[in-house]
Amino acid sequence: MRQINEERSLGDLFGDLTRDMGVLVRQEVELAKTEMTQKASQAGKNIGSMAIGGAVAYAGFLAILAAVIIGLGSLGIPWWLSALVVGLVVAGVGYFLIQKGLGALKNESLAPRQTMETLKEDAQWAKEQTK
After folding, report:
1. Residue 131 pLDDT class (50, 70, 90 cuts)
2. pTM recorded for the entire structure
3. Long-range pairs for 29-35 at CB < 8 Å and ≥24 separation?
């Protein structure tokens, strides 16, 4: 194997550094896109959970409200009181499901943390290359 010992000019070195930085920036942009897509997907799932919670609360309101109010009314409880009790219970379940979805969304960070970390590493690498 033959070794070639070349002296590279400062212009060649800076050209290589510039090209490498361009590649690195493009890779970081792709990483940021990928990371943001993952974050958006997770946020979409949490929003879906909230929507399903709202739909379940509404369906429960319609079905349970009618059946239980009629059942309680037939037991001698005033109709208005039966409606109030059933409405509060169903609304409480719906509130719980909505709060669960909101809590999951608040805990999800949308910042591209992996990209930010690699950008810091890249900045450190670039400093070392110019020394």
Report:
1. low
2. 0.41
3. 31/112, 31/114, 31/115, 31/118, 32/112, 32/115, 35/112, 35/113, 35/114, 35/115
